Amino acid sequence: MTATRLLSGLALSLILLLVPVSVLAHPPAENRETGNAVREASDATEAQAEVGSRNSHHPSPGDGHQDHASAHEVQSEQAASDVAGGHAHWGDHGPQTDLERAIAKAGALHSVAVHFPIALVLVAALAHAIGLSSGRPGYAETVRFLVWTAAFGGFAAGVLGWAHAGPAASTEDGIMAIHRWLGTSLTFGLFAVAAAVEWHRRNASATTFWTMNVLVFGTALAVAINGFLGGSLAHGGLAHLMGG
To answer: Is the entire prediction scored with pTM above 0.85?
Structure first.
């Protein structure tokens, strides 16, 4: 019982520490580069607009300068829009067909769907820790319901994540690559957590007990980390919160 209380106490402390971690995030290099690209595109657009304005007062045969400025302005605005979306790529060349564009559009729901499995996994870990600490068996059924719900919700969020980010680009690395593959592992790993809970429920032993504990608390940590990475990709962490 002493070991169980110690384990549950450590788990509760870990969960409490994980809650504010995303608030303390520093923006990754990808987001700083994204912000610079957006600003550069905006500056280019303004400069070309000024050129077009001057040419409108001094027209020339063919007015080629205005045409060039307008085309460049459209390209700059498109580049700024693509970069500001959080993922400036969908593979190496972006969505090319109508089907790929439809998939990419559906992937925008990833940022909404992913919050549910994150919350469910963290609450499952909290309920499991309380159950271990209090010794009340009723919490086991709560944990069981939460992990199964999280597994199906996580699968949906993972599929939408791939639709949102698209195929991995040949140059992809860093935070985006970690977020992609850790999220993919969790998409299927959550079912392993649910299976471990079922295993212990049907065959209670020291092996099933510790397997379940490691998977429940380890998955909660992995989900929190990947949620932090996803938030950094989307918002730039502390810089975003402070309006930087």
So the answer is: no
